[in-house]
Amino acid sequence: MKKTLIELKAIHKSFGKVGILGGIDFIATAGTTTAITGNSGEGKTTLLSIMGLLQKPTSGSILIDGKDAANNGIAELSKIRAARIGYLFQAPRLVGSLTALENTLVCTALAGKSNMRKKAVTLLASLGMSKRLDYKPEQLSIGQMRRVALARALVMETDILLADEPTNDLDLALSQIVTSSLFQAGANGTAVVIVTHDRSLAAKTDCEYNLADGILHHVR
Q1: Which of 173, 175, 188, 213 gets the most CB atoms within 10 Å of its CB?
Q2: Whether the model pTM is above 0.85
Q3: How far is 7 from 35, CA to CA, in rounded Å?
Q4: CATH number assigned to the domain comprising residue 61
Q5: By the 8 A CB rule, do 11 and 21 touch?
Q6: Which of 53-62, 107-116, 133-142 has the lowest mean pLDDT?
């Protein structure tokens, strides 16, 4: 039986009087890939950010290794994120003053991990970025920035990897590179959760859910 790495129990999220999530139960286990689909505006990004401990739910539990992190303070949440959760945002969110290589390593520095340069260089090379290690974001295309952001999410080899629309606005070749990297992380034992509108990507995952009207429906 595969180990449960993250579990959501009865997650509700409201903004003022507007309810977004109406009682979400979800489990992600080691070595699996999961897709979450749904129409725009249904709260997929909100749900993923709650999983990633970037937002707090209005109510409910977020269990990491069986321990509820929903009510932890900012400092403790930061420690858990740094150690356990990789996050690939829709936008690259690179630091403008840092090079591609430095942006890849920024989270390792925050987590207190050293000697990660060789691994970061290897990752960037696998994503076709070996000639742009010293380029800053303003010198990169959006596709190149997305690859740097992916390398940043992968370099820590976290137990949990969350990806928000990872193939959005990418051409077919680059989409295949990104998709391959995410599935390789799953094959290596990471619990990979992907929010996507890409039906072909969703179909390749181990399981799929659809978020509609604040409820997460199991598709397969």
Answers
A1: 175
A2: yes
A3: 15
A4: 3.40.50.300
A5: yes
A6: 107-116
